[in-house]
Design a protein that fits this description.
Elements (H helix, E strand, L loop, with lengths): L3 H32 L29 H5 L14 H20 L3 H23 L4 H20 L12 H24 L7 H39 L12 H25 L1
């Protein structure tokens, strides 16, 4: 058995490894964020400068470090590299580390690392293009199917309660509410109104991973964050009243909060009523 110091050292070691892994995954997510909306393969051709098309070497692609050493410019043509690239890498690393701190060395952590890798790609693609690619939703559903099967044999602690049907209800809970909103928008405006179908579909894998309680809380938090942000942007005249604001980033933020604190929030709420 490991002593207290050994256990703490092991946790720190795993945390560092996951942070570094997150940096590397973030580098790959940058490729996905750039290529998927263009309907390009994320595998071929290999990474290259989008300005001069020069193939990048391993030294050009060290997460965060290469950006700093190259001073934010391509080694070959000196074109500027968007600061978003190291930010995505750092954000992914931090998300990986925070999830590990919250859930430890567990199946739940592994599942959430997979889910939020997809959600981070969705966040930035939706910011840039106001779309949520079906391929990413399907990847999320595939992972959610694995957690659903796992829960049949071993209780998946994110599901409260850990019943076999919890992820199935999760699939249709928040997404069903958003679908109703989109349907009302279709009837009133002749389109999906204020709610895109991509947002509806995104909550299907979220519900499969988190179960119906946390999925509904994620939706509530996303609406609150979206509403507050929209009011601020309108008051500050950054956007106009009829400007479209992507909802995907708020879904990701709400889901992250619900993942970390959701069960405590729900318990606190019901203790007040």
């Amino acid at each position: 058995m490991m002593g207290i110091d050994q256990a703490a050292g092991f946790q720190v070691f795993v945390g560092i490894c996951l942070f570094v892994l997150g940096l590397c995954i973030g580098s790959f997510l940058n490729v996905c964020i750039y290529r998927i909306p263009l309907k390009q393969s994320v595998i071929s051709p290999p990474s290259h400068c989008p300005n001069c098309n020069t193939r990048l070497t391993a030294a050009d692609m060290i997460p965060v470090v290469s950006y700093i050493l190259l001073r934010g410019r391509c080694r070959y043509c000196k074109a500027g590299i968007p600061v978003r690239y190291p930010l995505v890498e750092l954000l992914t690393g931090m998300v990986y580390l925070i999830l590990y701190i919250r859930y430890g060395f567990s199946v739940e952590t592994l599942a959430l690392l997979y889910l939020f890798s997809i959600l981070l790609a969705v966040l930035f693609i939706d910011l840039d293009h106001m779309i949520i690619p079906n391929g990413l939703v399907l990847l999320g559903m595939a992972g959610g199917a694995l957690t659903t099967v796992y829960n049949l044999f071993v209780p998946f602690s994110l599901y409260q309660p850990s019943k076999w049907y919890t992820p199935l209800i999760g699939m249709v809970s928040a997404s069903g509410i958003l679908f109703a909103v989109a349907l009302i928008g279709l009837l009133i405006y002749g389109n999906d109104g204020a709610m895109g179908m991509g947002d509806v579909k995104l909550f299907i894998p979220i519900g499969m991973f988190l179960g119906w309680k946390l999925a509904l809380l994620s939706l509530f938090l996303a609406v609150m964050l979206g509403g507050i942000t929209s009011i601020f942007l309108l008051i500050s005249r950054i956007v106009k009243r009829k400007s479209a604001i992507p909802f995907g980033p708020f879904i990701v933020a709400g889901t992250f909060i619900a993942t970390l604190f959701g069960n405590s929030i729900i318990s606190w709420y019901f203790a007040q009523i």
